[in-house]
Design goal:
By secondary structure, the protein is mainly beta. It is built from two helices and 16 strands. Strands 5, 6, 7, 10, 13 and 16 form a six-stranded antiparallel beta sheet that branches. The chain has a four-stranded mixed beta sheet with strand order 1-2-3-4, with no helix packed on it. It has a four-stranded antiparallel beta sheet with strand order 11-12-15-14. A hairpin with a 2-residue loop joins strand 2 and strand 3.
Length: about 260
């Protein structure tokens, strides 16, 4: 149904424009919110006849058509838009008064100041991804993994009695990173009591006793735990890690 502009005309009586006005209401309804009988993902808004009055007309998602160039912005306004870059639609932000343009996404990643976060994860000594409690839309508590673009963290060394005592992990990416030339951040937190009693520190760092390509790849990152202060400080763990790492945090970034 097509929305008809300039209805009613100044000289129209109600009976003349009644059908056109009704048609316009129906057209606006179909454009703004799809009926519940249709696919709920169609359209950007909740249907105007939704059973929950507070939800009617609210956004479900935001569809941005690609712009051929950066749109203009006036004083006290900002621009959020989509533009094609390297054959893909990416999200951009423009400051007020036709100010600076910043790219927000790049090939599925989120950019901050030119760095694009490609993956992150927090996991424990055995490779279990840490979970935190969140409330879902119904108010129920659910467990949410502290990870992005990481499928799992798997041991590389043989387990001993079901334990990953060699502290050797593969951090496996869900979607391959666009390049193996990425920045990585690896931080570990160990039991402070262990350090006090043993005068040793255990930490996580990249596995690189072979070649660096074994450690930093587009499909995974390999990390190991080592004991600092022992007679053997080789990066490849040849013996069990004495201290137990409480948390290991990994992040991967690329540059636009």
């Amino acid at each position: 149904m097509v929305f008809k502009a300039n209805i009613p005309q100044p000289t129209d009586i109600i009976s003349q424009s009644q059908l056109d006005i009704s048609s316009n209401y129906q057209a606006a309804y179909e454009i703004y919110g799809k009926p519940n009988t249709e696919n709920e993902n169609i359209g950007d808004h909740v249907a105007l006849n939704d059973s929950n009055e507070d939800d009617r007309g609210a956004h479900k998602k935001l569809t941005l058509n690609e712009q051929s160039s950066d749109p203009s912005t006036l004083v006290n306004e900002m621009g959020l838009y989509s533009k094609e870059t390297n054959g893909k639609s990416e999200i951009y932000y423009r400051q007020e008064s036709d100010g600076d343009v910043s790219q927000i996404t790049d090939n599925g990643g989120i950019s901050v100041g030119g760095l694009v976060l490609r993956a992150y994860v927090a996991f424990d000594f055995q490779g279990k991804i840490i979970e935190v409690e969140r409330l879902d839309s119904e108010g129920d508590k659910i467990k949410v993994p502290v990870s992005y673009n990481v499928t799992n963290v798997t041991p590389n060394q043989a387990l001993v009695q079901g334990k990953n005592i060699k502290a050797d992990w593969n951090i496996n990416f869900t979607d391959n990173l666009p390049t193996d030339d990425y920045f990585w951040v690896l931080q570990s937190f160990n039991d402070p009591l262990f350090s006090i009693l043993s005068n040793k520190v255990v930490q996580a760092q990249p596995y690189n006793s072979a070649t660096y390509s074994d450690t930093v790849t587009t499909s995974h990152f390999r990390a190991v735990g080592i004991n600092i202060g022992t007679s053997s400080q080789t990066i490849t763990p040849a013996a069990p890690v004495l201290g137990r790492l409480q948390r290991i945090i990994f992040q991967a970034y690329t540059v636009i």
